[in-house]
Amino acid sequence: MGMLQLVKEGKFLEATLDMTLPEEWGRWQTESGIECILVGRGILQITPADIPSYSKDIVLSSGVHGDETSPIELLQRLVSSVLSGEIQPVHRLLVIIGHPEAINLHRRFVEENMNRLFRASNEAINPDCVRANQLQLAVSEFYQQGGKSEQYRWHLDLHCAIRSSTHYTFVVSPSSTNQTRQRDLFVFLQQAEIEAALLSNAPSPTFSWYSAEYFGAQALTVELGKVAAFGHNDLQRLSPFYNAMVELVTQLKPDYLWQQDKLVVYKVTRTLMKQTEHFMLNFPDDQANFTMYPQGTLLGSDKDIEYYVLEEGETIVFPNAKVAIGQRACLLVKEVQVSTDGQVKAIT
Predict the structure, then answer these.
(1) What single-letter DSSP state applies at residue 90?
(2) For residues 226 and 70, is the Cβ–Cβ distance under 8 A?
(3) Can you say whether residue 246 is alpha, beta or left, with left for phi > 0 and alpha for psi between -120 and 50 degrees?
């Protein structure tokens, strides 16, 4: 059975990961009138029969890191439900399983961290660069074909953290030159019972940043629990997020209200970059995200540079001394209050 037929039968993940199957393109309609286009391996466009003028163009991506499997399982479930007619989307969707080669290897990437390669184009020097180029092209064509204004473009890039976290679920809102922190986006996070949001203060070529920067999309990197193998994820714990995601794609404008203090918001205070091979962190490799240290604590060093906690309340996120030189080795963040007048902004 070919890739296209497997996808038509709802086996999107199986078709994506079977690298013995030739890549196929195809268009068809479901019994409920939904138009589907298999754009390429792991890239499926879904269009409802009727598209209201104020509907959204929504990208839902997973598997940009190959070992982060729970989001992949959630999107497989969503696609299967759409193709069977159980779910009727009212928005255009682009559903992506990001990095099939890395997924099959049970690794984050093949040669290079793909979630640092979304910068419009890459020289095709490895499988990660090639795939990043494919995904950027698919997203670009999807948004351009939709013709929606920026406020109606959304992108949820679903991930898992490689370590434990004080917040089991949280998001990173990328820094961009566009207005990409719409109040409705953060109200959705509250409905999905996401525990925390981190407001980035500097550009970084992640998949969500690409959509935010180049297309003005309301884009987030969504961290859903901790990395585990297929079949070993606690999907029940992610039910609030999945249910909210279903509501997002099946309702034009859910009637949600901002709930003060339901979502903890942090701003980035500093980014520690790995400058030399001497970089090291002064705490265990498996230290949980959002761990807080007292002011004055030595966090790490890089040759002759020492990094300390400079202000009370700073916490660490994404610490990783093993990143490549020139990449982010740790974020320092601090909880803030926010204003929600149109855009969500930190109150300094």
Answers:
(1) S
(2) no
(3) alpha
Query: b/e per residue, 107-146, with b = 16+ CB within 10 A?
Result: ebbbebebbbbbbeebeeebbbbbbbbbbbebbeebbeeb
43-47 and 35-40 strand pairing: antiparallel
Of 109, 168, 121, nearest in space to 322 by CA: 109
Has 123 been annotated as catalytic?
no
Domains, the chain: 3-250 (3.40.630.10), 269-332 (2.40.50.630)
Q: Spell out the residues 6+ positions from residue 253 whose beta carbon is closer than 8 angstroms to its own.
A: 54
**Alpha helices (runs of H) in 223-348, residue ranges in sequence order:** 239-250
CA gap 5, 232 in Å, rounded:
28
Burial of 301 from C-beta contacts in 10 A (0-12 / 13-18 / 19+): middle
Written as tens digits, the pLDDT of the chain (348 aa) is: 899 999 999 999 999 999 999 999 999 999 999 999 999 999 999 999 988 888 999 999 999 999 999 999 999 999 999 999 999 999 999 999 999 999 999 999 999 999 999 998 999 999 999 999 999 999 999 999 998 888 899 999 999 988 889 999 999 999 999 999 999 999 999 999 999 999 998 899 999 999 999 999 999 999 999 998 998 899 999 999 999 999 999 999 877 888 878 899 999 988 899 999 999 999 887 889 999 989 999 999 998 899 999 888 899 998 888 888 888 888 899 999 999 888 999 987
Q: Which of 119, 255, 246, 112 is nearest to 192 (CA)?
A: 246
Identify the burial level of 164 via C-beta atoms within 10 angstroms of its C-beta, where 0-12 means exposed, 13-18 middle and 19 or more buried: middle
159 labeled part of a ligand binding site: yes
Choosing from 101, 213, 223, 314, the catalytic residue is 223
Tokens of 94: 């682009």
Q: What is the CA radius of gyration of the chain?
A: 20
